[in-house]
Every structure is written in structure tokens, then in C-alpha cells.
Amino acid sequence: MPELPEVEALAAFLDGKLAGRTVAAATPVAFQALKTYDPPLSAIEGLTFDGVGRRGKFLDLRVGDLHLVVHLARAGWIRWKDELPSGPVRPGKGPLALRLRLAEPESAGFDVTEAGTQKRLAFSLVRDPAEVPGVASLGIEPLSPEFTAEVLRDLLRTERRQIKGVLRDQGTIAGIGNAYSDEILHAAKMSPFKIAARLTPTEVDGLHAVAVATLTEAVERSRGLPLTELKSEKKSGLRVHGRKGEPCPVCGDTIREVSFSDSALQYCPTCQTGGKPLADRRLSRLLK
């Protein structure tokens, strides 16, 4: 799933390609992904892009007075093409969800695609991004100046959930998903199942510092890369996530995994749980 660093890189890439250019056609292909009808998607045709930004994991494409807001979900991606196919697009079972063609250069534009059978990608055309429910409910941006250690302490003070779940909650902190929450907790030497409210002030300060550092480093690694390289760059930069069975790069212990119904987390027992493996069941607890 694209998370804050990858969506930030996508936004920067598209901003460089689209700002000042006019929309010739915007064609929805996966109609279930289009979440709004007023204004219609055709309303952006003939309008000029003002720029592209990011809100959490959402792309915000500003077109005139309107916003095309895209959430790539787990398997969505943006594919830029200097020469889009000239033929008409037809709805079907393929990965194409949206095609946007520029007026100039005539054949350039991008496709929004989604792999797999679980179709969760969404795009909306709105007058204000806050009209998109997922945007309206976003929590604080972790790379904003407002995200201080004191703010994080306030967020966690009465939080009875496990810290892994809190970091992934977009209504609490925007943009962090499964992969970077694993990376942050590994860098903080913290169990993913520790109750957030039980963190000491020192632990919260450390968590804040490594969260900002981890995301900043990932953004810098992604900056300026072609879209075709962003996914592989993300994978190569991860130290524990997706690396079950490999040695921890810090201590050499074997990276373990806890599986859930629709996701999995990875961690290092030596670095994060005092050497104790976590039980691999849905309601996981430390093995005793």
C-alpha cells in the first residue's frame, strides 16, 4: 500500500508534470471507484491544473476551483504515459480505473490502476477536499511542524489501544500504514502490542523522534525517482517489514511475523520484545 513517503513522491512527480496544463478528457473506467457525481468528472475538462498535493495517503489534484482526490488503497498506482493509447477505453475487469488525458501535449496523461480482485481504490471530484469523508477525518500530519513530542504525548495519554494500531489509525496520525509503522516501532525498539497509554514520557519522546526521522528519510530516498522505481525503492529501504525469516540488520536475530485476517506485521524479538516471540494469532499476546 502506498504510504506517506510514496504518495508524497507521487504528488511531487505529478505536480511537475501537470501544473499549468489543461485537461482534455477525464474518463472513469471502474465506475465503482468514482465516489461522487456532483460535479460530474467531465467538469474538469478544459480546466487547468494548479498543482498536486498530499493529504495523508490521499492525492489532491487541484484543477481550477475543483479537487480530484485519489486514494490508491492497497493496490492502486499512478502510471504516467507520454503517449496514451488513442482508442476508446471500455469498462471491464482489467486494472484501469481512470484515464486522464492532457490537451497539450496531446497524447500525454496518466492512468490510475488497481491490481488484484479487491477493488478499494477511490477517487472523488469535489469543491473542497473536506467533502471526502476520509480526508475530513484525517489526524495530524507527522511531518508538519505541529507534530511535536508534546502533541504525541497528548494523543497517547488516554489511548488504550496497542501502539501499532494507533500509528496506523489515519484519524490519529495521517499517512502511516502497515509498513512504516513496523519500521518506526523497530527503530524505537518497541513492541507493536504495547498499550499506548503505558508509554513513559521518555518512550514517547523516542517514538516521536524515530517516527519523524523514518518518514523524512523515506521521503528523501523517494524524491525525484521515476514512478516505476518508487515501489522497489520502498521495499529496499525497509529493514523489518516484509522481511520475515531474514536477519535483523541491527542485532542479527530472525525477523518474526504476526498474521491477521487481512495483514501481517514483522518485528525483531531481540530489539523489540525482550527476546520473546509474539503469539501468531488474531488476538495476539506475548507468549508466557
UniProtKB/TrEMBL annotation:
Q: Which molecular-function annotation in GO is an example for this chain? A: 8-oxo-7,8-dihydroguanine DNA N-glycosylase activity
Formamidopyrimidine-DNA glycosylase catalytic domain mapped to chain residues: 2-93
InterPro entries attached to this UniProt entry: FPG_cat, FPG_N, H2TH_FPG, Ribosomal_uS13-like_H2TH, Znf_DNA_glyclase/AP_lyase, Znf_FPG/IleRS
Q: Where is the FPG-type domain?
A: 239-273
CDD domains (alphabetical): BaFpgNei_N_1 (cd08973)
A single GO BP annotation from the record? base-excision repair
Keywords assigned by UniProt, alphabetized? DNA damage, DNA repair, DNA-binding, Glycosidase, Hydrolase, Lyase, Metal-binding, Multifunctional enzyme, Zinc, Zinc-finger
Q: Does the keyword DNA-binding apply?
A: yes
User: Per the record, what are the reactions this protein catalyses?
Assistant: Hydrolysis of DNA containing ring-opened 7-methylguanine residues, releasing 2,6-diamino-4-hydroxy-5-(N-methyl)formamidopyrimidine
Give the required cofactors: Zn(2+)
State whether keyword Acetylation applies: no
Family the entry assigns? Belongs to the FPG family.
Under PANTHER family, the record lists: FORMAMIDOPYRIMIDINE-DNA GLYCOSYLASE (PTHR22993:SF9)
Official protein name in the record = Fpg/Nei family DNA glycosylase
- Name the species this protein comes from: Actinospica acidithermotolerans
